[in-house]
Structure prediction request, 461 residues.
Amino acid sequence: MNQAIVLAAGAGTRFWPYNEVRNKCTTPVVNEPAIRRLIRQLHEAGIRRVTVVTGTHGASVRAALHGLQGLEIAFVGVQGTPGTAACVQAALPLLDSKSPFGVFYGDIVTTQATISRFLEAARGGDAPAVALVQPIVPPERNIDWLGAHVTGARVEYVEGHSRDCKHRLCGAYAFTDAALSAIQDNPGIMTHVPVGGMPPGEAELAQSIQTLIDDGAQVLAVEVEGYLVDMDKAWHILEANRQVLDDMSRTLQENRIHPTARIHDGAEIRGHVVIGEGSEIGNRVVIDGNVFIGRNTRVVNGAIVGKAVAIGDQTRVSDYCLVGACSVVGNRCIVGHGAELDGVMFDGAYLYHYCEISGVVGQSVDIGAATVCGTLRFDDAETIHRVKGRREFPLHGADATYFGDFSRTGVNVITQPGVKIGAYTCIGPGVVVYEDVPSRKLLLLKQELVEKDWGPERYGW
Prediction:
């Protein structure tokens, strides 16, 4: 198997506010678009031809793959939200129809070992389909996933948002030409659901898997090795970055310092350093663990950096700021005087003057001085989110704040745990944000002033 289809067509509405300006598959994970990272992994595992299906924000997908070398990439566009099976059907004419092929959802973030072992299993068998699966481990809920009932190395059946399945489908499949009719004859809706289930009107590829099983075909199951994050909602950005950073840090065994990089003797470094061309670690800097620093970046003047941190290109981290463990600072960012970050910053964002930020900071976000993110509720419980009217219980990042792309805050803004601020939105000085703020809004505090006469006569002289 040397060909694959990668799906990057969905609108990603559950991913708000980060679906407004990009396809969610292009969301940066440790400063690399998720889909670019996935296709690199496919290439390393022997895939030579990739057909990418695009739809909403398709230009962002092309841009994310610009300059990727070593394999043949073709694009096919679809309109609307036809569903995963329909997207695969749109790509089939560009494949060698007699050769097996893989299908990968472009928003999954997983290990190279998982991708390689999955493709190895697909190449080594003669089953018409192979599915990547992952055990559902409490407190995860079965009903949140497309489920798979797995016995040994076989998928016995799949079910939409099952109450009983102990595995979930992970958005990676392999097919031979014997599976083509099941894909092409997809009914356009997930019919295999529990009683009372209400599937959306989309052609779901999992239903084609069930059709193969109903026809008596064998569908093999391969379990995830390590982690897999399906970036479906905003908090999955934090989870994906943390998992990848942890993996990178654990496997880093030595320094990798570019000859043009500079490390001051007054820096205190308690781990290994990867540092790119023209970058600098300055005097009084404290680095508490392994760190990954890009090109032409300055970490200087007393900056404090936690364990397993990645900092992008052309960025400044300086002036006694604090970057917490497992955080990511994007390209062309500034984390300045006394600022604190625990989370992920996209490219071009600024943190300045005693702000305390916990969560995700979108592209080119301007955080005003002394902006503070609340991270602990008075009832000590985690925030329950609502996504498209449905209650969600995040396992990671429930109490984080999510700043949409190109948003801004004024001085002394306070965000309560778990709020989301839309893209192109401004939060005025002194506002306390208690609820999600839609995109393209200006939120200003209106205060009531009391004016009285005053002067030296008030002091009895």
Notes: The first strand starts at residue 3 and ends at 8. The mean pLDDT is 96. The helical segments are 34-44, 58-64, 84-91, 112-124, 180-184, 205-214, 236-251. The radius of gyration is 24 Å.
